[in-house]
């Protein structure tokens, strides 16, 4: 191997795979970053699920004046870049004097991610409900149920079965999107995987910490993806 090629490989190693830097940052990534990433993702997912559930019920059972704001909300938040929403909510609201969560940026990060993903989950819910045979709705109406009752008691529960893989996939998306909250400036004990790795990389001038963070993201999302695929095959087989 020529000295030029060897030098290039050493440079790649120093940039991405320097074990001394990875070993130095790994405990903080595992002890602080990983739990905070999961906390951000789970809290945002719960908020998104509640918001999406309310919106889809209004969308499929309400009149045009009720459905219109829901459709506008879904269109806006699906159309905006996630990073823009995080900044507008996390920095914009406190700057405008709107601080329902106090000075800390953590709740605003959860709110921003929840608002964005509520729009996507609303569409997932709506598609799941629409995938249920309309004959069931007509039969429910024939039996004397109102349209709202038929939707809530019959169509929505049946649609949930078709939604489960897509909902689980959206959780994986939220885990990855949680990396954007570093823009809001978290306290040391609140930093997620990306925030810790980014800070470490800025101090050391190497990207090895980001590679380590990426490995932890993969160790989280790949098993979830495999589990989702397995559940999807099981539901399709039933």
In short:
With 238 residues, this protein is an all-alpha fold.
Description of the structure:
With 238 residues, this protein is mainly alpha-helical. The chain has a domain at 36-189: MetI-like fold, CATH 1.10.3720.10. It contains nine helices and no strands. Helix 3 packs across helix 5 (106-130). It starts with a helix and ends with a helix.
How are the secondary structure elements laid out?
Layout: H1 3-16, H2 19-61, H3 64-79, H4 82-95, H5 106-130, H6 134-142, H7 147-177, H8 193-204, H9 208-237
What's the main sheet like? none
End-to-end separation: 57 Å
Compute the number of helices. 9
- Give a count of the beta strands, DSSP E runs of length 2 or more: 0
Q: For the CA atoms, what is the radius of gyration?
A: 22 Å
What are the key terms here?
mainly alpha; MetI-like fold; globular; 238 residues; 9 helices
